[in-house]
């Protein structure tokens, strides 16, 4: 691996999307004895970790943290230790589905609402016919259902467990149940990626991605699930993140 760069104490991987995909494929093919926990962290999650001790511990114990946001890339550049590119949960999911289609990996999808979950998995089956679906479940479950979900994951032992319950809830959920998920090779959260795959949310047009304005497209056009903070409130974390990283850099100098 090409090492990491620390931004507000979060150790971000410096691998590209392609390099990350190859590294994860190696972990999966080697059939590790314990699961590989990957976190996709953006400026909002990085900032939240400053005041959330549990989230800090989860991030530090993760096997890899990838930069899911242009703000992370710019902060690393300002530190003189550049990250080559963003590695978003959505792009990484698509890359692993491509690899899974070649290698017949199994996936379990946990999160989002029932209809979106069903539609997303149906489209994945159609687009990646050699991917094995180990199971799926929506993210609005009670304690009894949770027990059944964990039992189902234990029984199916998917190569990859995809969590679509939002950050940092997905990673905190995994932290609580990590010891029960032996046999799973890779786990990571994908935010609203299943919403895009299902067609519920339109994908970001390439020109917006090229200009690193994916966040703006989501802010303007993507719906917010019930119970989540508005995107305008969430984006208010960005100027705080920029301020914190600049002050930290000035102090270091």
From TrEMBL:
What's the short name of a Pfam family annotated to this entry? Glyco_tran_WecG
| Entry superkingdom | Bacteria
The UniProt keywords, alphabetically, are: Glycosyltransferase, Transferase
> What's this protein's name?
N-acetylmannosaminyltransferase
Citing just one GO molecular function, the answer is: hexosyltransferase activity
Whether Glycosyltransferase counts among this entry's keywords is yes
PANTHER family in the record, alphabetically? PTHR34136, UDP-N-ACETYL-D-MANNOSAMINURONIC ACID TRANSFERASE (PTHR34136:SF1)
Q: Which InterPro entries match?
A: WecG_TagA_CpsF
